[in-house]
Amino acid sequence: MVKNIPLLILIGLVLYLIPAVYAKEKKENEPDYMLLARLIFSEAAGEPGLGKIAVAWVVKNRVISKKFPNTYKDVIFQRMQFTGVNFSLWRKTYYPDKMTTQEKKVFEECVDIAKKVIQGVLSDPVFGADHYYNPKLASPYWAKNMRITIKIGNHLFLKS
User: Fold this and answer.
1) In the chain, what is the straight-line distance between the N-terminal and C-terminal CA atoms, in Å?
2) Angle, to 10 degrees, between the axis of helix 49-64 and the axis of helix 32-44?
3) Tens digit of each residue's pLDDT (9 = 90 or more) over 104-126
4) Rounded Cα gap, residues 99 and 114, in angstroms
């Protein structure tokens, strides 16, 4: 059994890195609005419209902040930040033929929201929040040091 530990570590490392490699291949030439739409879809597809707008604004608030990278791409792909990146809903957006009619409709809504948030057409409903989480699914340690700005749908929005 001890002999298999290095193999298990290697397998774990490969499984950890594959999504990053996949993301790098797919993100290189995508416009900001499309990356943001994919993130909104993967993080908030089941949320109301305002919840989707709120998730988009968290990303925009990070882009604006000096505490985070200053591009949408770098914020979205910053390691260990958005769990939806590279998981099933994210990847599904690259294959619309595998989406249900409802998923296509929701993704189109996400694209529209992403464009409008980036253009400044939709105002910030989260009061400058730069983090969010679903308290039904997680209790992140980092949330203790932040101020809750608002609850929208299933997410709490916080400012660091």
Assistant:
1) 45
2) 130
3) 999 999 999 999 999 999 999 99
4) 19
3-state secondary structure 49-118: HHHHHHHHHHHHHHHHCCCCCCCHHHHHCCCCCCCCCCCHHHHHCCCHHHCCHHHHHHHHHHHHHHHHHH
pLDDT single digits (tens) 29-87: 899 999 999 999 999 999 999 999 999 999 999 999 999 999 999 999 999 899 889 78
* Domain assignments of the chain as residue spans, ordered by start: 30-159
pTM of the model: 0.82
Two structure tokens written together for 106: 């929701």
Q: Which two tokens stand for residue 120?
A: 């400044």
CATH number listed for the domain at residues 30-159: 1.10.10.2520
